[in-house]
């Protein structure tokens, strides 16, 4: 009699294929689960492989629409970014995959779920916190944190030998020594040769984007429209897209053609380790740039400051795996009202890795051309600035006087580098 039923997050790769076979050896009935979140994948081949590995069943869920509408577009709306650079492509996918798994576990009666996340990575935390937030009674089997498993399969060779003994078909190559994770938002590359942060990524590594030096020599103009901060229309090459999935994929395609969205960073993982990652996130990069450009036209300065603080917090919660937490729900609910006026169109020029804003317009504009003009004082009294400067200078004068009393003030030239001594 089986110990119970396990729903395994299955990728079709070496690790999860071996985990599936190992769980079966341990006495569990296993059902494979795969979510289509926009990755390039032979789903039927994955299904066939899972069944060959001994799975009782295989579930494939098309989750692209909810991924784009419920995770990617709200991230654009929040200008979400982790440590100033990373657009959170992997972090954004985990909540929707976890939700699909919990729904499948409930439907199939699986009391356990399992995954192939390593014990050093972020994803183990993201998945499991999401599992527990959605289905508190779920039980998780994490093989890479079980000594009997990770001691037995300490290296790739041990996994390959086990796969061979189980008749698991595996394609293993050393020609691409890095790992990848792909979805509609991006593709990530890490590990292998990339573990040296000073190693230049091989040109052949970049899978989705044209090398910017080889991108078209002619800039391409595209138009993006937003409603309450969410992308609602794109015009590309004379064709208009309004369906959210088609819109995002079209922006992705044109961005990739022009080499937009390559990122190479060293980031701080949740558990305290630093990790080097390379990413391609063309569509997300373009939409975020356009959104920021439109906010400059339509958003009040002080509202934007508050939203920026909330956006940073939201980004951290996404990265750390707290999407289904009460604080994340609260932060999201606070960001949405800030976007009421973010309506309009942004024109961008894509050229050799760059997405440059060349114009923006909105019925909600706060921009006053007459007030901003240097050619007229219409509606503005220059004398009024004197009082503003006098008031603002009060603390500057106090600080200057204090520094002078300490012998630190005055007009002598001081090297900026001296401050670091």
UniProtKB/TrEMBL annotation:
Gene Ontology CC annotation, any one: cytoplasm
Associated pathway: Amino-acid biosynthesis; L-arginine biosynthesis; L-arginine from L-ornithine and carbamoyl phosphate: step 2/3
Tree of life domain: Eukaryota
Keywords: Amino-acid biosynthesis, Arginine biosynthesis, ATP-binding, Ligase, Nucleotide-binding
GO molecular function, one term: argininosuccinate synthase activity
Domain called Arginosuccinate synthase C-terminal: residue spans: 178-399
The EC number(s) this enzyme carries: 6.3.4.5
InterPro entries for this protein: Arginosuc_syn_C, Arginosuc_syn_N, Arginosuc_synth, Arginosuc_synth_CS, Arginosuc_synth_type_1_subfam, AS_cat/multimer_dom_body, Rossmann-like_a/b/a_fold
BP terms from Gene Ontology: argininosuccinate metabolic process; L-arginine biosynthetic process; urea cycle
Alphabetized Gene3D superfamilies for the sequence: Argininosuccinate synthetase, chain A, domain 2 (3.90.1260.10), HUPs (3.40.50.620)
Domain Arginosuccinate synthase-like N-terminal span(s) in chain numbering: 6-169
UniProt record similarity statement: Belongs to the argininosuccinate synthase family. Type 1 subfamily.
Complex formation: Homotetramer.
The name this protein goes by in its record: Argininosuccinate synthase
């Amino acid at each position: 009699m089986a110990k119970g039923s396990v729903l395994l997050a299955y990728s079709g790769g070496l690790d999860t294929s071996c985990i599936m076979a190992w769980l079966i050896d341990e006495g569990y009935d296993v059902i494979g689960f795969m979510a289509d979140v926009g990755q390039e994948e032979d789903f039927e081949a994955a299904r066939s492989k899972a069944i060959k590995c001994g799975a009782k069943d295989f579930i494939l869920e098309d989750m692209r629409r909810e991924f784009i509408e419920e995770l990617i577009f709200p991230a654009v709306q929040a200008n979400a970014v982790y440590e100033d650079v990373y657009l959170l492509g992997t972090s954004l996918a985990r909540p929707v995959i976890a939700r699909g798994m919990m729904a499948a576990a409930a439907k199939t009666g699986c009391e356990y779920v399992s995954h192939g996340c390593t014990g050093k990575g972020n994803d183990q935390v993201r998945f499991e916190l999401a599992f527990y937030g959605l289905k508190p009674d779920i039980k998780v089997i994490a093989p890479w944190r079980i000594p009997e498993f990770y001691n037995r399969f300490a290296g790739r060779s041990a996994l390959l030998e086990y796969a061979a003994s189980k008749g698991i078909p595996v394609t293993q190559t050393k020609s691409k020594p890095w790992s990848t994770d792909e979805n509609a938002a991006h593709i990530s590359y890490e590990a292998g040769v990339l573990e040296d942060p000073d190693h230049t990524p091989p040109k052949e590594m970049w899978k989705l984007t044209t090398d910017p030096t080889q991108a078209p020599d002619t800039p391409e103009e595209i138009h993006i429209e937003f409603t309450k901060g969410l992308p609602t229309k794109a015009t590309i090459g004379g064709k208009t897209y309004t369906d959210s999935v088609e819109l995002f994929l079209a922006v992705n395609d044109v961005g990739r053609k022009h080499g937009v969205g390559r990122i190479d960073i060293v980031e701080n993982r949740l558990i305290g380790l630093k990790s080097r990652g390379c990413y391609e996130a063309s569509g997300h990069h373009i939409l975020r740039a356009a959104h920021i450009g439109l906010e400059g036209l339509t958003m009040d300065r002080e509202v934007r400051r508050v939203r920026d603080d909330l956006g940073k917090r939201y980004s951290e919660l996404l990265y750390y795996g707290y999407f289904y937490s009460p604080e994340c729900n609260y932060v999201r609910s606070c960001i949405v009202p800030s976007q009421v006026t973010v309506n309009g169109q942004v024109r961008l020029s894509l050229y050799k890795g760059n997405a440059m804003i060349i114009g923006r317009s909105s019925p909600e504009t706060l921009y006053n051309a007459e007030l901003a003009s240097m050619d007229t004082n219409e509606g503005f009294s220059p004398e009024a600035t004197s009082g503003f400067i006098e008031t603002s200078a009060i603390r500057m004068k106090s600080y200057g006087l204090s520094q002078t009393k300490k012998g630190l003030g005055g007009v002598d030239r001081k090297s900026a580098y001296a401050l670091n001594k």
